[in-house]
Amino acid sequence: MIRFKKLFIFFFAATFILSCSKDSPNRSGDGSIDRTANLKSLGSSASDLLNDATFTSLNIEIVYVEGNRPTEEGINLFRNFLQSRIYKPDGIKINLRSANSSGKAPFTIEEIVDIEKEERTSYNVGDEIAVWIYFADGSNEKDTNEKFVLGSAFRNTSMVIYERTIREFANRTGAPNRATIEAATLNHEFSHLFGLVNLGTTPVTDHEDPENDGHCIVDGCLMRSSIEFGSGVVNIIDGSGIPTLDDACIQDLQSIGGR
């Protein structure tokens, strides 16, 4: 039986430093929401996401543009991945809602940041940590005919999935189905929120790819990447299913309270 292998690009953005304005969302006497805890650098909330020392539940807000809702199977596979890696005794909530198109595609990561500012409603509160995921109706501006960015983790609790790109790629002959690509992208990008690899979570052993910052050098790992076409971060998914984290990455997560 022939096994097909396809190359998919997972992109993680550099840290964004945002200045506070007069309407900066610090908690005040009027009970306004403190958003600052969710506007930090990528990987800085890794331990909070993984263990239950501060937050005992996880609230994931998925906002998808009309016509770009992720598959139920993809979300279920993503939930299974989270349950296998984190301790949240009060549970994991994944809430989906639709939004109108921004009309900004193809997107820069700065434009995604602006969309988050307009669309995000869930932030950390009490013992619940919140994550925002946007399923976009367009591609990343850096895409070419040979390179496709499927997802970007860009802050401590923020990420974007380029759902339209995923759908187009899934329709190609020999490609894995859409749910598999969605789940693999979600798992990979959320692992960047976990601080992998060396993005806020200190490696227990040296397994970061020296040629690809933030990715694992171990063959077959979910966080494995290689540079192709001169730029881009490439992760290989094959027809056998979604890659899993290798032992070195799991040890990193366990070192800060993960499973």
Fold and architecture overview:
The protein has 259 residues and is an alpha/beta fold. It has a single domain, classed as Collagenase (Catalytic Domain), CATH 3.40.390. A seven-stranded mixed β-sheet has the order 3-2-4-6-5-1-7, with helices on both faces. The longest helix has 16 residues. The radius of gyration is 17 Å and the shape is globular.
Q: What is this entry, summarized?
A:
The chain is α/β, with parallel strands linked by helices.
Q: How many domains comprise the coordinates?
A: 1
Residues in helix, %: 10-25%
Identify the CATH class: Alpha Beta
Gap between N and C termini, in Å? 35 Å
Helix tally?
A: 6
Number of strands: 7
Give a topology summary.
Layout: E1 5-12, H1 46-50, E2 57-65, H2 72-85, E3 92-99, H3 109-119, E4 128-135, E5 149-155, E6 158-161, H4 163-170, H5 178-193, E7 234-238, H6 247-255
Parallel strand pairs: 1-5, 2-3, 2-4, 4-6
Antiparallel strand pairs: 1-7, 5-6
Features:
259 residues, 7-stranded mixed beta sheet, Collagenase (Catalytic Domain)
